[in-house]
Amino acid sequence: MDEQPLEISCCDCDRQRKQGEKILLLDCREQEEYDLVAIEGATLLPMSQLMGRAGELAGKEADEIYVYCHHGMRSAQVTAWLREQGFEKAYSVAGGIDAWAVEIEPGMARY
After folding, report:
1. Residue 51: Cβ-neighbour burial (10 angstroms; 0-12, 13-18, 19+)
2. Residue 62 included in any domain
3. What is the C-alpha separation between 102 and 81, in angstroms, rounded?
4. What's the CA gap between 40 and 99, in Å, rounded?
5. Quick one: pLDDT band at residue 48, thresholds 50, 70, 90?
6. 69 annotated active-site
7. How many domains are contained in the chain?
8. pLDDT 10s digits, 58-105
9. CA-atom Rg of the chain in angstroms
């Protein structure tokens, strides 16, 4: 079995989203960060709550899951953990929401 890359670029993620691909956009930042700015359609599941709330992802093991945080550090950790749990199509969005604000939605708030 080929090893899937851990990361996906913001542009590739956005392209799949716009093409109507069935993806789960997972925001692993904290509620306070999400309240400042979020990508439309994203589901908030903070890294700090992941283990306790992982059951919310049941049935999505075969889905493409794109995880993002602020800059990409937490999402890389969450993605690695998700893959260990059997979510083989989990990817970290490179550069996080900060890169998204620069590359995809230039009017988006940055912090």
Report:
1. exposed
2. yes
3. 27
4. 15
5. very high
6. yes
7. 1
8. 999 999 999 999 999 999 999 999 999 999 999 999 999 999 999 999
9. 13
Q: What is the 3-state secondary structure (H, E, C) of 59-86?
A: CCCCCEEEEECCCCHHHHHHHHHHHHCC
Strands (E), 7-101: 7-8, 23-27, 43-44, 64-68, 90-93
Instruction: Answer whether residue 109 is part of any domain.
Output: no
Q: Which amino acid is at 80?
A: A
pLDDT band at 2 (very low <50, low <70, confident <90, very high): low
Count Cα atoms within 13 angstroms, Cβ side, for 34.
15
What gap in Å lies between CA 62 and CA 50, rounded to an integer?
Answer: 18
Amino acid at position 8, single letter: I
Catalytic residue among 10, 13, 28, 69: 69
pLDDT in tens, 4-39: 789 999 999 999 999 988 899 999 999 999 999 999
Check: CB of residue 45 under 8 Å from CB of residue 28: yes
Domain that holds residue 69: 7-103
CA neighbor of 37 nearest in space, from 89, 101, 81, 93: 101
